[in-house]
Amino acid sequence: MKWAAGILLMAAWITPSDAAAPEDLAAYQALAQQDLRLATIGYRLAQANAPFCDRKTLSPGWVLHDEAQYPDKGLAKTAFVFRSPVAISSVVTGGAAAQRGLQAGDGIAAVDGIDVTGPNVVKKGRARARVEKIQTLLADAFAKSGAAVVSMKTAAGPKDVKLQPPAMCSSQFWVDTKTKLDAGADGVFVRVTEGLMTFTALDDAELAAVVAHEMSHNLLGHRDRLAVSGRAKKHVLATEIEADRLSVWLMQNAGYDPVAAVRFIERYGRKTGLGIFSDGTHLRWRNRQMLMQAEIVGMMQTDARNGPRSPPLLHPSN
Q1: Which pLDDT score, from 0 to 100, does residue 25 have?
Q2: For 91-136, what is each residue's pLDDT tens digit?
Q3: Residues 62 and 186 grouped into a single domain
Q4: 154/92 same-domain check
Q5: Which of 105, 140, 168 delimits the end of a domain?
Q6: How far apart are CA 248 and CA 209, in angstroms?
Q7: Counting beta carbons within 10 angstroms of the beta carbon of residue 238, is it exposed (0 to 12), middle (13 to 18) or buried (19 or more)?
Q8: 218: Cα separation from own chain's centroid
């Protein structure tokens, strides 16, 4: 699946095997809160580092979900407000959607006049397809003119909203419902499991360290590089070292304490007993700590009088 690079944020997809018991509204609502937490951290990192990213996108700063993605639609409609089949699950504070007064429950009816509620919008049987269609329409509109007019169904009635969000570093973020302590990046998406989000529940800066690391893979084009060089351990290790180095710069520029990355690596390493992996594709956790500590020392010696510090692994672009 290829999408325009961006951080047009979406809710995690729930499958029947992942769903809670039908009577448990809290399970749906808790996942929505996790989506918002991850979206907020990702948005903050992407926005703060925009001056240094060659790969950029425009993001409304919202989380969307489709009533069809839930195995029990009735329960979903009790847990959430859906004014259209695809609605806003939550909005990121300070984002373009929030600035235009959009709220959770507001439904999307059309993008630049293209209806997204009709039965023929997408093929049947694909719970994610309507959100994907909306994301694609938005990405196309933003790429063409930097803005999109979105027809919304709000509590106050129909409303056309012009979204003209700022450019920021590209990545999209989603919560994986697995309990394993894991995260990943595929060039476009940053995935974080519920297990890892729970592990960092008391410290958003630690979760930011996870997101910044995976986001670094996307910003540095590591997936494409490995497709050319091959996935020999030494090549993968080189990308992991770069992601660790860049992550602390992204955190610092976004206002997160980069020392939280060092703290997270120790907690994770002691929890798993394996560093992050032990197969030679990642440094052992103590070595990762030393690498990031050295990077932080060097970073703090750079000039920050003119705003965010320019990460040496990224190239500023206008």
Answers
A1: 84
A2: 999 999 999 999 999 999 999 999 998 766 766 556 678 898 999 9
A3: no
A4: yes
A5: 168
A6: 7
A7: middle
A8: 11
Non-local CB neighbours of 229 within 8 Å, separated by 6+ positions: 235
**Could you tell me if residue 20 is inside a domain?**
no
Q: How many domains would you assign to the chain?
A: 2
Q: What is the extent of the structural domain holding 288?
A: 178-300
Which residues sit opposite 10 in a β-bridge? 64
CATH number at residue 98: 2.30.42.10
Contacts of 130 (CB under 8 A, 6+ apart): 66, 68, 85, 86, 116, 121, 122
Q: For residue 309, is it within any domain?
A: no
pTM of the predicted protein model: 0.89
**Cα separation of 254 and 101, whole Å?**
24
Based on the domain organization, do 71 and 194 belong to the same domain? Answer: no
Residues 6+ apart with CB under 8 A from 175: 11, 12, 31, 34, 35, 38, 191, 192, 193, 194, 197
Domain assignment present for 18? no
- Choose one of 139, 168, 197: the last residue of a domain: 168
